[in-house]
Amino acid sequence: MILHIVKDSEQLKKVCKKSDVFTDGVIKEKYKFMIEHMFQTSKHSGGVGLAAPQLGFDERIFIINYKNYDCVFINPKIESEFVETKSEYEKCLSVPDQRVKVERPTTITVQYANILNERVTTTLTGNIARIFQHELDHLNGVLITDYIPERKCLRCGAVNRTCKSCCSKKCFEELRGL
Q1: Annotated catalytic residue: which of 88, 118, 135, 150?
Q2: Model pLDDT for residues 57-70, shown as the tens digit of each residue
C-alpha cells in the first residue's frame, strides 16, 4: 500500500518520541505494517529513504532503500562523526520542489535497533551516511529547508520566501553576518 507523504508542514517540525516497537523481543504487528508500507511508498515515490513522521507517525523509525541497501532503523542515533564533511544537494519527498545544498560528515558511527530487536553499532560512509543523517533530521523535526541560508529581498527587505509581491528570484541576496 502506498501511503500519503506529509508535505512541508508544522507536523514535520516535531521531535519524535522514542518508539516502543517490541513486545517480548518481537516487533509489534502495527510496526511490521508501517515499515513494509514505508518501503513501498519510498520506492514508488522515487525516494532512497523515508522517515515515519513523513507518513504522519510520531515514531523514531526510518528506512533506507538505496540501490542494494535496504535497512530499517529503530530509535537510531549518531554515536560519532568523523571530521571530513562534504556539501551536496539533497532532495526530500516532503519538500518536493526544493533542492538544498547541505554539508554533512561523510563518515558516521551509528547505533540503532533492527527489526529483530538487535542493537546494532556500525560505521556508515558516503551516500548511506548522508541518507541516514537526512532521515534522522526528520525524527528531530529538521527539514532540508532549515539548511537554506537566510536571504533578504533587495527591494522590499523581506527575509527568505516571505517577500511581498514585488519580487522575483533575482532580487534576493544572502544575508551575511546576521
Answers
A1: 135
A2: 999 999 999 999 99
